[in-house]
Amino acid sequence: MQGHRISINENLNEYSFLLTLIHEVSHLIVWEAFKRKFKPHGTEWKRVFQEQMNIINALNLFPEDLAEAIRASMKNPKASAHADKSLAIALRKYDSPSKSVFLDELDYDTVFMISKGRTFLKGEKQRTRYKCKELTSGKSYLFSPLAEVMPV
């Protein structure tokens, strides 16, 4: 029988790491309680994640600006910290210095590069995402406003 495995990106700042760890442990707790009878980010997971984060927040491990963003986010937790704009911005303050920016910060028609080296032209916002054109292929892709990109 194979045990559980949680993997977390090694490039996260200490606060993003802790938040991600609690997120994943919450999945494990829900899995152990309900097995397959729940949605991955459904009501059971949200409740457990909120409970776990309340315990962590009581330890005062986060700087106040980040703790405030986490408290606001925990009213209705998202599947990802980057799905919550306020939380993503608060967490980013504690990342190592980088030349990357959120796509949302770039002007229309700005050329940018993603981590894999592909270059795109920022286009119009389509409801919640930006339609961007890859320069080499001409194909269009939708990007989250919170995608971290490098202006070219």
Give the terminus-to-terminus CA distance. 49 Å
Count of runs of 4 or more consecutive helical residues: 4
Computed over alpha carbons, the radius of gyration is 18 Å
Question: How many β-strands, per DSSP?
Answer: 7
Low-confidence stretches: none
Look at the structure and give the mean pLDDT: 92
Label the overall shape.
globular
Assign the structural class, choosing from mainly alpha, mainly beta, alpha/beta, alpha+beta, or little secondary structure: alpha+beta
Number of domains: 2
Strand content: 15-25%
Helix content: 25-40%
Largest sheet data: 7 strands, antiparallel
Secondary-structure element order, as H and E?
HHHHEEEEEEE
Characterization of this structure:
Strands 1, 2, 3, 4, 5, 6 and 7 form a seven-stranded antiparallel sheet that branches. This protein is α+β, with helices and mostly antiparallel strands and 152 residues long. Helix 1 (14-34) packs across helix 2. A hairpin with a 5-residue loop joins strand 5 (129-134) and strand 6 (140-143). The chain has two domains: 14-92, no CATH class; 101-151, Roll (SH3 type barrels). 36% of the residues lie in helices and 16% in strands. The protein has four helices and seven strands; from the N terminus they run H-H-H-H-E-E-E-E-E-E-E.
List key phrases describing it.
single chain; 152 residues; alpha+beta; SH3 type barrels; 2 domains; seven-stranded antiparallel β-sheet; 4 helices; 7 strands; globular
